[in-house]
Amino acid sequence: MSPLVRVRDLVVAFGGRPAVRGVSFDVERGQVVALVGESGSGKSVTARSLLGLCGRGAVVEADELAFDGLDLRSLGERQWRGLRGRRVGLVAQDALGSLDPLRRVGAEVAEPLREHRIVDRVRPEVLRLLADAGVPEPEVRERQWSHQLSGGLRQRALIATALAARPELLIADEPTTALDATVQKQVLGLLRAKAAAGTALLLISHDLAVVADLADYVHVMKDGAVVEHGVPADVLTNPRHPYTRALLNAVPTAERRGRGLSGTIPALDQPDRRVPGRELITVTDVVKRYRVRGRPPITAAAGVSFTVRAGETLGIVGESGSGKSTVGRMLLGLVAPDSGAVEFDGVPWSARAGAERRAARRRIQMIYQDPLASFDPRYTGRQIVTEANPDPERVAELLRLVGLAESQVDRPARELSGGQRQRLAIARALAADPAVIVCDEPVSALDVSIQAQVLDVLVDAQRRLGVAYVFISHDLGVVHHIADRVLVMRDGAVVESGSATAVLAEPRHQYTKDLVAAVPGTVLRQAQSVLKPG
Amino acid sequence: MVTALDTPTPVRRVRIPRAGIAAALVVLAVVAIAALAPGLLTGVDPNHADLGATLRPPDWDHWFGTDQNGRDLFARVAHGAGASVLIGLGATGLALLGGIVIGTLAAQTGRWGDEIISRLLDVVLAVPGLLLVFLVAAVMGASGFTATIGLAVGTVPGFARVVRAEVLRVRASTYVEAAHGLGHPGPRVVLVHVVPNAVGPVFALATVSLGAMIVASSSLSFVGLGPKPPTAEWGAMLAAGRDLASVAWWPTVFPGVAITLTVLAVTVLGQHLQARFERRTV
């Protein structure tokens, strides 16, 4: 039997510049095929060529581009519409952006049913699809708007929409990138079950660890071409292409603790000589509640206590809504606790005012998940760092330290890539000569390979300058890699704390155990224990 | 085999064609020369009355004809640009300055300050714009200066509201928090980061309202609240030509066309700048 999807020598060009150069792959019914690579590798464009949605100005050429024996190269717009949603479904990464804010969730799921006249009675089918996609209380959710759903529920609603017309092929483009580990695990399980039931699944991801757990076959893409392909166990244990090897090394895990991830900073392979210093921050029993009218108050911090020492990294892990970001903002004195105290350098924020408060502010800096939003849009990279430190030599030195070239910093920051923006944010934070930097999900929006470079820059800067980090993240792999000590937060409370190795390798609290179990990369870790590093 | 696939094209925003922008620039250049150095366009004195040549239709000696006093209409239209455009520009500039200062103060002075300033702006907004000018003219006497002040006062509340909303938006942004985090004093952060990032929309609004201001300044002259005669001014010329419209078309048509073209050019350019500004911030 011929495969459901057959692609041979696919080339997609935009304005004469090829984004995909000669990609070939098959997808069988019931099979999970993954395209893995970083942003710009051409993986999304490749998948969208199966929907005729490569974008404006795209020129698509192929020796073969077939879906169930149908030659996609000769389809007109009307025929494409018969295919999209009906026979090929798409789950996009941005679940909020993919759902119409002015329609209820039920109407969203019902649309393909009505459009393609799948069933006579739509509503029972909508409820069935929502329940099937793992949405609890479908009768309630169906009546809600997309902004009322959590990220995980939105993604599930989107999957329900994509599956509504019972497509033979489902394309999932980074379906779990923005989700917490436990939710990610559920969504991946849902996709896996769909594949087992006979739907072909084309999975697109930058994360080799996620892909390896789910896929039957993997294509690693770089610069528009497939550099390596095979079954995951083979690709992971025996990577032949240097790029695949680099991708594997870039995954932060316990095994790679204390070593460089990106291979770009040789100094990281020297032994770690940091010695934690005196206590810089003392948090004592802080409580913070937010009251929203008509709803029970949200407890962001319920009696949290901890300390941060000079030169160490404290990881704070927890899922969305656990209160970890609120705690981070209290450390900076941006949010005042309802009770309890946050002392920085022995003085509580509440006792500092005016010039003294401003001087203290400089000593504790922040790095955000979205660095671009933290830059004045009118400023160039150099101006942004200069604002933190007027000494041009120091600015140049820090830009070198974070690996930004002279040619990159005299342009507006929005022209930089995601990884470069975060390097710039690190340079600015360091320019204020801080004792502590609070990093709130600093690498969550980045591809694994870029994440590896940013994490390496952070570790390198800490070893050179002795700055302490409070590293807030939902990603246990990242925290396990970078943190010396860890707090695990849930619903505003610390459920477990201790050294990173102890807490994450041998969790005692049930919640921590669940979190650790949800971390993707089972196949990858098995491979890494076989594979010798280096 | 090689084929190209059709991909759907999203609907594009209507853009002003390049030729339109070029034409607008040419018109504005001519108006600017007329406003700053009308002598470059005509050597004729706009106030020289040749009683032997009253109400002549356009010919080679008088391109736009002459009025009932025998004054050359081309010279009067050229010299009239100064008054209309200066009043429009001056009123817009003053309204911008006032709007930015008052809007920023409203956003920055806390709940009570905001409440007091915003209600005062509401009071001004409740008075019709022309009535405001009458008021200023009644107190200070009718002149180009009072027309400018009156128009500016009527426009400030709208500008101030836009600035206030933008300041509140920018103030909540992460980069302002980051600037505070660097230990800079509050007023510095407001002046260096908040205000410059908040004024973009009001400048775009001003380029569009400049056209309306020029029309308004002509209207004021038309009803006699602008510059005093015999100063050449487009609105005043319209008013003077009105009674002759049945016997001579040229005393009203040429100043009217001048107003229309100027406003059109300013508006086209304003919208173009606004579109560019929006693209830059996205």
Automatic annotation (TrEMBL), chain A:
It holds the Pfam family oligo_HPY. GO terms for molecular function: ATP binding; ATP hydrolysis activity. Keywords: ATP-binding, Nucleotide-binding, Transport. InterPro entries: AAA+_ATPase (IPR003593), ABC_transp_ATP-bind (IPR050319), ABC_transporter-like_ATP-bd (IPR003439), ABC_transporter-like_CS (IPR017871), Oligopep_ABC_C (IPR013563), P-loop_NTPase (IPR027417). GO terms for biological process: peptide transport; transmembrane transport. The keyword Transport applies. Residues 5-248, 281-516 form the ABC transporter domain. It comes from the Bacteria. Belongs to the ABC transporter superfamily. This is Peptide/nickel transport system ATP-binding protein.
Automatic annotation (TrEMBL), chain B:
CDD domains: TM_PBP2. It is found in: Cell membrane. InterPro entries: BP-dependent_transpt_permease, MetI-like, MetI-like_sf. Residues 81-270 form the ABC transmembrane type-1 domain. It comes from the Bacteria. GO terms for biological process: transmembrane transport. GO terms for cellular component: plasma membrane. This is Peptide/nickel transport system permease protein. It comes from Actinokineospora auranticolor.
